Amino acid sequence: MDEEKIIVCRCEDITLKEIRDLIHEGYTTVEEIKRVSRAGMGPCQGKTCGPIIAREISKITGKPIEEVYKPSNRPPFGGLFFKEIVGESNEE
Amino acid sequence: MKNKASIVVIGGGITGVSIAYNLAKAGVKDIVLLERKYLAYGATGRCGAGVRQQWGTKQNCILARESVKIFENIKDELNIDIDIEFKQKGYLLLAFTEKEWNQFQKNVQLQNSLGINSKLLTPDEAKNIVPFLNTDNLLGAAYYEKDGHANPFLTTIAYAKAAENLGVEINKGVEVLDILVKNGRIKGVYTNHGFIETEKVVNAAGGWSQNIGKMVGIDLPVYSERHEILATEPVNEILGPMVMSFSYNIYCQQTPHGSFIMGYGPKERTTSLRSSWQFLESMAQKVTRLLPPTKNLRVVRQWAGYYNMSPDHQPIVSKCEEIEGFYLAIGFSGHGFMLAPAVGILMKDIILEKKLSWDVVLDIGRFKRNEIIKEPSVV
């Protein structure tokens, strides 16, 4: 398959090729790739792309996957509207 | 990694890379930068990404003004083709109390005298800039259209690449364990990857700068505060400027990517970098009251970071009097990202013993001399 057509981060629309290019450029942690490319910053918070990116890093650098993938789970888990927090009393 | 360096810069945030770049640009060879994790791991990568020139002290105004000149021409300055997403759509600062309003009048006068053409606005004029702004109890606002935003990660990487192009060695994943001092002089740095012989060390470790100070036996007058921040899903552009209120204790902007970033400081001295539900709830109340359409935004992520606070909320860019060869770029009090381009130049001036590029007093001796003027405009 064409790595330019494989979407790794669906939230931010980032392809496998972009991820591999970043790893070859020296960004060899999931956190760095997130900061440079926004992969994993969308609504799913890297739940889908995180493990895939980690696998790519592990394959290219030879580092064990446990060393590469230590996700920092940041709240809120599922994405929340402000209006769900403040309630309807704040509605105009 | 080299085992000998002319200068070791500790910290791979925006301040460290800017200092390394400016030293290399001035012709210094064998500079080594050490970063414990990865570039922009600490405060830089966790910051609000705002760039403002509307300050209440001369020093902060000058540093910000000069930094914006560099942000505006960053590709030419660094000779690097990275888009740092610099946007200039202004900062709108809101005054809800008489005290704030009086302060804004003084600030604007000071800023104007330094070539920063900020202005005071009536609540109606503020509404012209942000039509959905809730102006209840608003006395007025201050606005400068040349303030804005830049992407902290990409700016850090741009500076780091430019530094590397000039010969700087940047080492990620290298932790400083101790610093060797003999007879009051720096002799080297112990790391988890070995010893580096050097006579000059720059402490640009941000939230961890006190720890580095302790390694040379100095108790630095800074401390780290945990501040919290969140980001929403991207939406079409509805908000141009950064909106900020000191009495609400909030800042909120829409990035060029479309997401909103907003934060405030609970002012906690804690070593935790976790985010709290209390922050999310409190921020939801504040932002939906001030900018009602934000209630339809979905929060996707929240996090925390350190403000490295100095006693007067202005940076300490200085040599250390007690230890020969030890330099400090610390205490940015939440504004290190936006001031870093100018700070890199000042530190270069100090290390190379040149006249400072601008008339500012940022040495650590100012606290002893009791010359401090506290920055009044901090969130």
TrEMBL record, chain A:
Record domain BFD-like [2Fe-2S]-binding: where: 7-54
Oxidoreductase keyword on record: yes
Keywords from the named record: Oxidoreductase
Domain of life according to the entry: Bacteria
Protein name per its UniProtKB record: (2Fe-2S)-binding protein
Species assigned in the record: Marinitoga aeolica
TrEMBL record, chain B:
Keyword terms of this UniProt record: Oxidoreductase
Residue span(s) of domain FAD dependent oxidoreductase: 7-348
Classification via InterPro entries: FAD-dep_OxRdtase, FAD/NAD-bd_sf
Gene3D superfamilies: D-Amino Acid Oxidase, subunit A, domain 2, FAD/NAD(P)-binding domain
Superkingdom, natural source: Bacteria
Listed Pfam families: DAO
Protein name listed in UniProt: FAD-binding oxidoreductase
